[in-house]
Amino acid sequence: MEPLQCGTSPIVGFRFSLHPMTSDFIKVIKGALNDTDTSNVWMHTDDVSTVIRGKQIHVFNVAKALALHTAKTGEHVALSGTFSIGCPGDSTGDVFLEKDDVLLNTDSTKQYISSQFALYPMNNPDYMAVIYREVDRAKQLGLFNDSMHYASGIHGDIHEVFAFYEEAFTNACSDEHRHLVMTVSMSINSPSHGGA
Amino acid sequence: MEPLQCGTSPIVGFRFSLHPMTSDFIKVIKGALNDTDTSNVWMHTDDVSTVIRGKQIHVFNVAKALALHTAKTGEHVALSGTFSIGCPGDSTGDVFLEKDDVLLNTDSTKQYISSQFALYPMNNPDYMAVIYREVDRAKQLGLFNDSMHYASGIHGDIHEVFAFYEEAFTNACSDEHRHLVMTVSMSINSPSHGGA
């Protein structure tokens, strides 16, 4: 049996909600979906959230593109969700692992975002060390915003922030501890951000 | 040394974001904060989220009251957040554990909500059994809505849903495995809910 390689072989999922703080929220969400190429991920929306599943690179690529396209409306938008890999109860949708590695969303428009994240490596006695290591890495990258209860603040340009999250997700997963969860909550175009 | 009793002795926290899908979002959030008695919890708001900390009963009571008061505006509102207890990095704010057990928010107005939750008992080899047990309990209570990747759907009247979440949080924590995380995502007054 080949070793399971986190972030390459197993399916990654992101269950999220996109919240435009405007009465036109449906238009903003539909517009972002329209502007994002989601053909490399499996996607399902219900009355509370949306889930996308597939190769890690495509899941993060689609998540970033959705955030970026909603940001372009200029509306205050929040994106919160949970990245997961290796859940023991996981099953269907693996067909999307056969997609190639060509990213379909490549818009590199700059956009400031402020966010918070938490890592939950499941069934791993050393999980706090894993978390502290990634927080230290954010500090070294200049993306660390603030310490706080239950999360860490990460901010900067959307492309750097998403690159950090994808790498943190890769780093926090291991062959021995395959089930990893990462929650993220992002705020875009917030009136609190001023000129940031 | 006395045993640590989950849900009674240690401090519970809830880091959340409230997202009214209206251009008047600031007014809706400020109104809900104004109508909710938060004096039994420590509270701090930053540019992405708000955290409340204190005794478990007060943290859940304040969370429910905030959701209920925003619901009363009739606007489509989303509430997403993470309940935590026993985080090894946890520290300040314990003064609020000396509050008595009298609930300060007792509005029992009925309100349908649809939600999703996930339990993450940290460093617990039997964590999947803990999760399945609580999902089964939701089914028995008639609150279970749907199975899905990475979460479970819970819906019904806001008071029953919050009672379920508080009990699930209590049940999933144990003296042996003290660090517990529970994510919840709620949708209120959604156009998707129709007459539900």
From TrEMBL, chains A, B:
It holds the Pfam family Ykof. Residues 11-90, 115-192 form the Thiamin/hydroxymethyl pyrimidine-binding YkoF putative domain. One of its GO terms (molecular function) is thiamine binding. It comes from the Bacteria. Thiamine binds at residues 18, 50. Gene3D superfamilies: 3.30.70.930. Coiled coil: none annotated. This is Thiamine-binding protein. It comes from Planococcus antarcticus DSM 14505. The lineage of its organism: Bacteria, Bacillati, Bacillota, Bacilli, Bacillales.
